[in-house]
Design a protein that fits this description.
Length: about 100
Amino acid sequence: MAKITESIRNEVREVVYGFFAEECEVDISRINDKTSIIKDLDGDSLMFLELIEIFKKKYDLDIELKVIGKYAVKHPVATIGQLIEMQLLIIEHENKLLELDK
């Protein structure tokens, strides 16, 4: 678990924007926090899983995919901004993510 600093927040945003620009073959200037992952970028859930793996390695996270899946069912992600916020929660809370709903 990590305390979310402005540096981590910016780093996560940069990685997410860069990832979607590359994977979806769009100019990064077309991506912002309100960009729809599916409608605007033609993205999919597999991309979300790839991003999780990137951040698991980058921040040495100990989180099970089933925990993320259960959380995502209650808190669906549609935009880049929502995805960034969920990723920050994953970095900060790891396997305790589900306790946020209690």
